[in-house]
Amino acid sequence: MIEEEKDSVFKLENAIVKYKEASDSIYQFKPLSVNENKYNRIDTIYIHKELSLQNVQFIPFPTENFNSMLTNYDFKGFGFNHINFKKKVTLRNTLAVLFNECVFENTLTVNNNDPIVYNIYDYIKKNENRYNSESALMQTDFILNSSELRKGISFLFDLKNTDNLYEGEVEITNSKIWKKPNSVNLNAWSSDIKCNNLLSLNINNLTFYNQARIYNINGRYFNFTENKFEDITYFYFSAKNDKSNIKIKNNIFKKYVVTSLNTLTKSSEVDWDNFSNKLINSSSFNEYFYTLRENEKIGVIESYKKLEKLDNKKDSLINIYKNSYLLSHKSALKKEVQLRVNYYDFYKSQQDLESSNALYIEYKDLLLMQSKLQYKQNPSFETFFKWRINQFLKVFSAYGTKPEKAVIFSLYVILLFAFIYLLFPNSWDTLGKKRLIHRFEFFQKYLRRNEGMHTIYLEDKQQEISSYEAFKTNLEKAHLELPSFFITWSKPLYNASMFSSRITSRFLKTTDVLHGKWKDLSPKQKRWKNIQIGLLLTVGLLYDLFIKALNALMLSINTFTTLGFGEIPIKGLPRYLAIIQGFIGWFMLTIFSVSLISQLLN
Q1: Which helix H or strand E contains 341, and what residues bound it?
Q2: What is the pLDDT of residues 12-38, one digit of tens each?
Q3: Which domain holds residue 19?
Q4: Which among 553, 548, 544, 582 has a CA at the least distance from the CA of 428?
Q5: pTM of this prediction?
Q6: How many domains are there within the chain?
């Protein structure tokens, strides 16, 4: 019929188109063999006429095959398969139709909201027995699968019939919708999918390259997954009742999502990651948009052209709206807050702490912007403190939602003050100075005598070792005068006391390979002696630095946690810094405690 039409527009009204194997199989995908579920593609069919169909219903395969194909998304074999539509395609009140692997060079318009369609229902119901065995017409399914729409889509599916038998099911999957060119037509600036009172709407694996408007109002099942939006998106949905199921997962919104106060049920599944830092309240944004048009005296098309140029520049419409308009219009800011509170309550009811915390952060960010504006409009200590304390809470603990950030920042403060204390002397480091002097005296003796290092070491330790030996000798002499258990328990004490001296002496004896006075050694031996002494001094110096750093760190921790140590073991400027650090520690630990308790209660 399309080929025989002489006009450039093919029109058909009030018709039922049934599938017949004998005549229509040549337009199908044919299986390669009976046992293989593979299909051999035929050549693409090109339609060069504009199509206008009104109240035309398409009857696919028998019901059992139809349901199986819907379940498996296997749309090969019926409907419009692999067809290239060169011009506009307009469908009005065509409820049951399928497009599979089609290309629309021009716009696709689907408008299903005219009550005249129910005349078809009456006709089908009168002939129910006849059609029930041949088709699935009673299914009001619109299916668009694996297709490409190069100039967008305008889709309206509004069923007003309350009879569940005719509740519609819409599947739009695995398709690409491209950006429309400049046009004087307002509808050319976005692709619309608007559905009301549907049984189910499934939009999966869709890619929008232009602005998109997605509406699903009073739907019972809404599955919206794995979609990608390159431009601004208008997104509206609401549940029919508490039993409605809404699933929004794994979508990618490259730019902002303009939406309303949506209703979500307990059974809904919504990934907040889809919308994080992208939500814009539609009511307040539209007010801003219309105000912009009035102030700049521009028309509708010009305003949409300006809106399309959304980017990260400071003068983009979205940034002006967020950073200027919201702050000067309390009602707009209140609506943005309400939008996030609505989602916050939903995630709290689902015990999704991560998502509810993310929403709480966005809500507090809006209030932070407001407090900054209040300070600029009315500079005072109170407004300054309110602004800065909120700013600090955001950085320090994400407004109390991330106590782990408080721990990290506390560690940074402790390390910073520890570094400062490291640069100044304190009373805890006095032993380090004596140890360093003693070490140089030890190596001086070693370089001027013939004995090895272990011998000199034992000489320096003689008084200490003698006391240990005297302790051991007294125990051995008094074994008849003392209980055996007392002597048994004393031996480990002696061995522990001598352990350090024995290990150090053995190490020095093993590593000391060159004996003799420095002045008597050959040049080659002196070089080895230099290396030996240099390594030992370096190890000793590193050990001293480690102890000094450890003392500085302990001093910083002690000061930060305000444990108290009586007299502050440091003098000069660091003494006053220690007091300041103590105040900072008290303040930060208090906030950390509150944040931690808040998360534990949640």
Answers
A1: helix 330-349
A2: 988 878 777 677 766 665 544 444 444
A3: 9-281
A4: 548
A5: 0.67
A6: 2
